[in-house]
């Protein structure tokens, strides 16, 4: 091999090596959750039956889309049963939904390496797995509160404009049927502003369960967000968000 060929070979080898390192790092890096929770009360041991069922469940979960961004799968028996769900925001496209669910699964396994239960929230989706039954459950272990730091100039007027919007959306989402419980819309707020909102439940909930869940978290606005021009509350089976800018990806209905 000539001296030039030898130098070229080593240069290309170094370039490929650096490229592979960069590609691997980029692939493994996952965005941060808005919030996540690892249940430390129940752990599993490495190579246990539970871990094998969890691996199987989370590998297959992204293939269970009901067509409207809701995923669920249960694997195993008895104490080794793994329940899992994922819910994409009702206005995101399938590619963004799928990417969000996949990122969530990777991130949760890294952040909660041996916990039997974990949940992660992104802007576009949530993923939860547990050794306890998830579908149909309305048990809430903790609430996630995220508020806009800007306050309305007229708090009373802002609240009086926001309340009927969220009430209307709550009713629309709860009546959404067994495949999709999601609603978004907007209303004119103070000083010619526009308030945008969305609400969503996991579609396994009944109409009453969905309505009650949304009512519970919407009622928390007065205590946690009173005066804030934007906010959201996240729990595993329902959520809402409102802002004074358009954050919803689909056309919103004016009420």
Describe the fold and architecture:
36% of the residues lie in helices and 27% in strands. It has helices spanning 3-28, 49-60, 94-111, 155-174, 207-218, 221-224; strands at residues 35-43, 70-75, 82-88, 115-121, 125-130, 144-147, 181-188, 194-201, 231-235, 238-243, 253-254. The chain has a six-stranded mixed β-sheet, with helices on one face. Strands 1-4-5-3-2 form a five-stranded antiparallel β-sheet, covered by helices on one side. Strand 4 and strand 5 (125-130) form a beta hairpin. Helix 4 (155-174) packs antiparallel against helix 5 (207-218). The longest helix has 26 residues, at 3-28. Mean pLDDT is 88; it is low at 4-28 and 251-255.
Question: TL;DR of this structure?
Answer:
The protein has about 260 residues and is an alpha+beta fold. It has helices at about 5-30, 50-60, 95-110, 155-175, 205-220, 220-225; strands at about 35-45, 70-75, 80-90, 115-120, 125-130, 145, 180-190, 195-200, 230-235, 240-245, 255.
């Amino acid at each position: 091999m000539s001296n030039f060929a030898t130098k070229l070979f080593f240069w290309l080898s170094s370039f490929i090596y650096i490229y592979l390192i960069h590609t691997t790092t980029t692939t493994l890096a996952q965005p941060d959750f808005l919030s996540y929770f690892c249940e430390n009360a129940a752990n599993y041991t490495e190579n246990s039956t539970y871990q094998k069922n969890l691996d199987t469940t989370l590998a297959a979960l992204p293939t269970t889309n009901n067509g409207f961004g809701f995923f669920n799968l249960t694997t195993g028996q008895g104490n080794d049963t793994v329940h899992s769900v994922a819910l994409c925001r009702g206005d995101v496209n399938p590619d963004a939904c799928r990417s969000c669910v996949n990122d969530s699964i990777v991130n949760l396994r890294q952040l909660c390496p041996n916990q039997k239960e974990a949940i992660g929230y992104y802007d576009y989706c949530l993923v939860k797995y547990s050794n306890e039954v998830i579908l149909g459950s309305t048990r809430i272990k903790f609430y996630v509160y995220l508020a806009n730091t800007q306050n309305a100039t007229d708090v009373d007027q802002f609240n009086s404009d926001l309340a009927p919007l969220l009430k209307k959306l709550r009713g629309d989402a709860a009546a959404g049927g067994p495949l999709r419980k999601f609603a978004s819309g907007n209303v004119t707020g103070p000083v010619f502003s526009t308030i945008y909102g969305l609400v969503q439940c996991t579609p396994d909930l009944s109409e009453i369960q969905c309505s009650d869940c949304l009512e519970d978290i919407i009622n928390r606005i007065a205590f946690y967000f009173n005066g804030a021009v934007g906010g959201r509350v996240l729990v595993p089976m329902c959520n809402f968000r409102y802002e004074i800018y358009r954050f919803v990806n689909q056309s919103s209905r004016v009420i």
